[in-house]
Amino acid sequence: MITNKSKNIEVQNDIEWKYTNDLVDYETALSTMETRVADIIAGNALELIWSLEHPSIYTSGSSSKKEDLLQPDRFPVYNVGRGGQYTYHGPGQRVVYLMLNLKKRQPDLRNFVKDIELWVIKSLNQFGLDCKTYDDRIGVWVDSGISNKKIAAVGIRVKHWITFHGFSINVNPDLEHFSGIVPCGISDFGVTSIKQLGINCKMKDLDKALKENFPLY
Hints:
The chain is of the alpha+beta class. It contains three helices and 13 strands. It has a single domain (2-212), classed as Bira Bifunctional Protein, Domain 2 (BirA Bifunctional Protein, domain 2, 2-Layer Sandwich), CATH 3.30.930.10. Strands 1, 2, 3, 4, 8, 9, 10, 11, 12 and 13 form a ten-stranded mixed β-sheet that branches. Helix 1 (26-41) links the parallel strand 3 and strand 4 (47-53). Helix 2 (109-125) crosses helix 3. The longest helix has 17 residues, at 109-125. The protein is globular and about 45 Å long.
């Protein structure tokens, strides 16, 4: 493993792991992903897994419905090409962008999403969280004691079998900010966070667990 501590970058098995501590605006993240995907396609760059936090925003995926944006003037709204519906990103939420070559693994997007969900579940298990997936709901869910609530969302896009976008895990965001949308188009269940479930988890601890449990080398 090669580590560049000054830039919070590690390279392992030809995958670059990048960690950004400051908030990253969404336009910068999109531009960076698009450039890296193009470079991977051209054979000029390593695969990249990028962990970061965003300022408060809403994003809409390819399946979003206008009526699910309940407060369109609350935060900036970005229409992007990933799968899924409306979601929220903001401080206290770990966003992990995946620029990976599925030709090196299995060129099957559905299985890739399942692999991501299982990866997140295994990582959260290390903090004592019992998480689940459901066939009719994308993402990772926990039993909050009253009902199932979503703790992680997944939204992926693929170009020439190179993935971008990724997943987000609610560590300690302001959960009230989700009230401006119908998260992922599901109104019957709420959202939760690691903090709300009574667990004190630092971003670096979550990053470590995700890297240790990464299944897709």
